[in-house]
Specification:
The complex is a heterodimer of chains A (about 110) and B (about 110). Chain A has no helices and 12 strands. Chain A is an all-beta fold. The chains are: A mainly beta (about 110), B mainly beta (about 110).
Chain lengths: ~110, ~110
């Protein structure tokens, strides 16, 4: 069964902390994505990567960075967590989004910043 | 103005009822995906449609892609409590980025 695995289901962090969210996929997909999901705002793209060591900003990259050192792993980093980054974070991968292939999502990480 | 509109935003029905939810765009899209998201989980892909006028069926779910490639509908027959969830559509715009744009979803509750 193909999978996207996010390392934590729930996280509570303090304001100002550096936070790492890890995502691993076992489908050999080139494309990986990080979204945040907030009530009433839907899914918003933070960053995506189409190859190892390649990254592109999405719609809301401010306050975030990413790392893709290996094909299967895509990490999201909150450099200095703030309360407005409290959200559900979703990682996804896709074989060929440009050909209409859909996403496989992880189960999400619900992050609370206090 | 939002690029992608989903309606209705919320839907609460009884088991056994039929329902239709809609996804409408102001722009033509090359492909469209439907996802279902259960509470506390990530979205799960239900179907991808790429041809205008295409109809796909998945058990009690019927997906239709409009001829003009600007709209889609999802019809559920004889809804069951297990259909409860957030239904999201995502479109890849013609001539634009290959990254799908997500709608805000329709939240469906099916009561036993």
């Amino acid at each position: 069964d193909v999978k996207v695995t996010q390392s934590s289901r729930y996280l509570v962090k303090r304001t100002g902390e550096k936070v790492f969210l890890e995502c691993v996929q076992d489908m050999d997909h080139e494309n990986m994505f990080w979204y945040r999901q907030d009530p009433g705002l839907g899914l918003r793209l933070i960053y995506f990567s189409y190859d190892v060591k390649m990254k592109e900003k999405g719609d809301i990259p401010e306050g975030y960075s990413v790392s893709r050192e290996k094909k299967e792993r895509f990490s999201l980093i909150l450099e200095s967590a703030s309360t407005n980054q409290t959200s559900m974070y979703l990682c996804a991968s896709s074989l060929l989004p440009q050909a209409g292939y859909g996403y496989t999502f992880g189960s999400g990480t619900r992050l609370t910043v206090v | 103005t939002q690029l992608l509109e989903q309606s209705p935003q919320f839907l609460s029905i009884q088991e056994g009822e039929n329902l239709t939810v809609y996804c409408n765009s102001s722009s033509v899209f090359s492909s469209l995906q439907w996802y279902r998201q259960e509470p506390g989980e990530g979205p799960v892909l239900l179907v991808t449609v790429v041809t205008g006028g295409e109809v796909k069926k998945l058990k009690r779910l019927t997906f239709q892609f409009g001829d003009a490639r600007k709209d889609s509908s999802l019809h559920i027959t004889a809804a069951q409590p297990g259909d409860t969830g957030l239904y999201l559509c995502a479109v890849v715009l013609s001539g634009g980025s290959y990254i799908p744009t997500f709608g805000r979803g329709t939240s469906l509750i099916v009561h036993p």
